[in-house]
């Protein structure tokens, strides 16, 4: 099936057939996995892939295995026609758009679990979430076998989980992180931003402001980490957020950073936050360089 100059594949066989034809011409292939509800953050991944590869595949699949029992799978925004139009305008060559039974046929029982890095932060708050992510991404990487796959840094923990699974399972795909795309007021672009009411949308940029202010405090007073985090949490709560976590972690493996007075960063770190505003769960993160870095 084609949409203008863009193909749509609904089976693994059709996806592999298209990729094989490109490989026969020695063309490089980039993969952009998505769950739809396409916004400019997704299109930034497409642009990154287009800059490095002759062919770009985007997947469009709302993965039920990464939603918990009380989460928003049924309500997750879906508009396939709009998504396909956005992909075509951005220069995607093929959209892989499989039905659930193609990805999880009857009798499917395999689960990919990435230990350690998937069990903290979002993994602790959303048990099983990263197993669902790791399982579907492993399948997509093996189904397409692109030269590189592109993931946004907004979902920083997810990016590290995917890098680890690709390394540990010897999947020959380069995993590229792409900088977070933000609205003019700083809010990280996310499909879930559509859940925000107009009033909540006015409050939501506070999340990025608090991240930035907390990062500055840590840079200015590296021995006052605990106080900086407490101040950030208080600011978010005062703004109407229910905070799940605001933590500074090692940028390489999300290991804890010692918050004790006098403790100092000895390498790159990441400041990560998850908080609810009304019914909407928002996450964000920014890098925090080591002193003198």
Task: Give a structural overview.
By secondary structure, the chain is of the alpha/beta class. Strands 1-2-5-4-3-6-7 form a 7-stranded mixed beta sheet, with helices on both faces. Helix 9 (206-220) runs antiparallel to helix 10. The protein contains 10 helices and 10 strands. It has 2 domains: 2-178, HUPs (Rossmann fold, 3-Layer(aba) Sandwich); 191-288, Pantoate-beta-alanine ligase, C-terminal domain (Pantoate--beta-alanine Ligase, Chain: A,domain 2), CATH 3.30.1300. The mean pLDDT is 93.
Secondary-structure element sequence?
EEHEHEHEHHHEHEHHHEEE
Mean pLDDT: 93
CATH architecture of the largest domain, please?
3-Layer(aba) Sandwich
Strand content: 15-25%
Evaluate the radius of gyration: 20 Å
The CATH topology of the largest domain, please?
A: Rossmann fold
Sheet with the most strands, sense and barrel status: 7 strands, mixed
The CATH superfamily of the largest domain is HUPs
Main CATH class of the largest domain = Alpha Beta
Strand ordering within the main sheet: 1-2-5-4-3-6-7
Helicity, in percent? 25-40%
Low-confidence stretches: none
Which word captures the global form?
globular
Quick gist of this model?
With 293 residues, this protein is α/β, with parallel strands linked by helices. The chain is built from 10 helices and 10 strands.
Supply the key terms:
293 residues, alpha/beta, Rossmann fold, 2 domains, 7-stranded mixed beta sheet, 3-stranded antiparallel beta sheet, 10 helices, globular
């Amino acid at each position: 099936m084609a949409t203008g100059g863009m193909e749509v594949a609904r089976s693994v066989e059709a996806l592999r057939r298209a990729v094989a034809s490109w490989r026969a011409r020695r063309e490089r292939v980039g993969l952009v996995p998505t769950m739809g509800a396409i916004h400019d953050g997704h299109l930034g991944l497409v642009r990154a892939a287009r800059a490095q590869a002759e062919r770009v595949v985007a997947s469009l699949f709302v993965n039920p295995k990464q939603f918990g029992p009380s989460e928003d799978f049924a309500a997750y925004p879906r508009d396939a026609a709009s998504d396909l139009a956005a992909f075509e305008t951005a220069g995607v060559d093929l959209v892989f758009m499989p039905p659930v039974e193609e990805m999880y046929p009857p009798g499917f029982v395999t689960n990919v679990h990435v230990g350690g890095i998937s069990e903290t932060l979002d993994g602790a708050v959303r048990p099983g979430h990263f197993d669902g992510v790791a399982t579907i991404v492993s399948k997509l990487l093996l189904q397409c076998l692109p030269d590189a796959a592109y993931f946004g840094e907004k979902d920083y923990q997810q990016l590290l989980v995917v890098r680890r699974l690709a390394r540990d399972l010897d999947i020959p795909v380069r995993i590229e992180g792409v900088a977070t795309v933000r609205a003019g007021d700083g809010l990280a672009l996310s499909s879930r931003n559509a859940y925000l009411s107009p009033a909540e949308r006015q409050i939501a940029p506070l999340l990025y402001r608090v991240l930035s202010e907390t990062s500055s405090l840590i840079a200015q007073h590296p021995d006052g980490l605990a106080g900086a985090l407490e101040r950030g949490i208080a600011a978010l709560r005062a703004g109407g957020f229910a905070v799940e976590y605001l933590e500074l972690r090692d940028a390489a493996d999300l290991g804890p950073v010692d918050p004790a007075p006098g403790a100092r960063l000895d390498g790159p770190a990441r400041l990560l936050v998850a908080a609810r505003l009304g019914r909407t769960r928002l996450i964000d993160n920014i890098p925090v360089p080591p002193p003198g870095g």
